[in-house]
């Protein structure tokens, strides 16, 4: 089995915080002189709590498949007194830091996929939808990923979705489904039909709006599954493997230039 190593790096500091990236690399990653694709994956927690460890099992698996995987910390309410807008800014910073250090990390900055679950899916999506909202808009390094993998993501932060009260009256500003435009990255969404936190209607409407604007976006629905159905759960969750296999296939195809975003994708995967 491919050995996986984990290192850490501080990517952003402030008056009372220092945010780290947890970086996973397998022996199957690119050798010196070559460049690996990279996955940046954001944990969930409703912008209130949560830790990067949620996706460490995913990270190790992707690293065994040849990806370099980055699991960022970001500011949350319980630990930092932060609003979701600070978390959105941190997500953009994490991707920019990763690209700026591409040579050191031996990654290809043009093959970067952002991923996340729930509020982390919202942050990943926001790096593509809201790149203009940045504390350093003059930086030449883009925060827009080359693809997106979203596990039951928050796509609507208004009253029709989740989290409206956490945006202090500014929820429409952070609601991706209301700001979709042409040219967004290829996107895979994995969602349970019985999710009562982020209703499946939100995901369906998001995919409809993405497609209507000419973007390539696929939703794979999991019947009778609730929020967080994809989590590792000490290895006892068969849907961890099922969803992870689809995510790896999508990411591998995308970074090799052979994306199969078609209606037959669930059967092919």
Structure commentary:
It is a single chain. With 269 residues, this protein is an alpha/beta fold. It has a single domain (4-268), classed as Rossmann fold. Helices cover 30% and strands 22% of the residues. The protein has helices at residues 56-64, 77-80, 84-100, 102-105, 119-129, 200-212, 238-255, 265-268, and strands at 4-13, 18-26, 36-42, 68-72, 107-117, 147-151, 186-192, 217-222. Helix 5 links the parallel strand 5 (107-117) and strand 6. Helix 3 (84-100) packs across helix 5 (119-129). It is globular and about 50 Å long. The protein starts with a strand and ends with a helix. The relative contact order is 0.13.
Short note summarizing the structure:
This protein is of the alpha/beta class and 269 residues long. 30% of the residues lie in helices and 22% in strands.
CATH superfamily: Alpha/Beta hydrolase fold, catalytic domain
Proportion of strand residues? 15-25%
- Chain-averaged pLDDT: 92
Secondary-structure content class: alpha/beta
CATH topology group: Rossmann fold
Would you report the number of β strands?
8
Q: Characterize the overall form.
A: globular
Strand order, main sheet: write it out.
Answer: 1-2-4-3-5-6-7-8
């Amino acid at each position: 089995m491919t050995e996986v190593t984990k290192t850490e790096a501080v990517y952003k500091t402030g008056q009372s915080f220092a945010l780290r990236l947890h970086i996973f690399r397998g022996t199957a990653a690119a050798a010196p002189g070559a460049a690996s694709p990279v996955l940046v994956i954001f944990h969930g927690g409703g912008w209130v709590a949560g830790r990067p460890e949620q996706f460490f099992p995913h990270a190790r698996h992707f690293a065994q498949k040849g990806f370099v995987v980055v699991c960022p910390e970001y500011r949350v309410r319980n630990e930092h007194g932060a609003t979701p807008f600070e978390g959105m800014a941190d997500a953009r910073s994490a991707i920019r830091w990763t690209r700026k250090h591409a040579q050191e990390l031996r990654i290809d900055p043009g093959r970067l996929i952002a991923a996340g679950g729930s509020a982390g899916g919202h942050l990943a999506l926001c790096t593509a939808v809201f790149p203009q909202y940045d504390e350093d808009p003059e930086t030449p390094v883009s925060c827009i990923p080359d693809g997106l993998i979203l596990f039951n993501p928050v796509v609507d932060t208004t009253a029709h979705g989740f989290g409206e009260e956490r945006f202090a009256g500014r929820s429409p500003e952070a609601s991706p489904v209301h700001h979709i435009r042409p040219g967004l990255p290829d996107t895979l969404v994995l969602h349970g039909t019985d999710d009562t936190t982020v209703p499946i209607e939100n995901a369906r409407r998001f995919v409809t709006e993405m497609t209507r604007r000419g973007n390539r976006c696929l939703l794979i629905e999991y019947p009778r599954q609730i929020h967080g159905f994809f989590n590792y759960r000490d290895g006892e969750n068969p849907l961890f493997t099922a969803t992870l296999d689809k995510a790896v296939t999508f990411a591998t195809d995308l970074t090799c230039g052979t994306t199969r975003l078609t209606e037959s994708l669930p059967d092919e995967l």
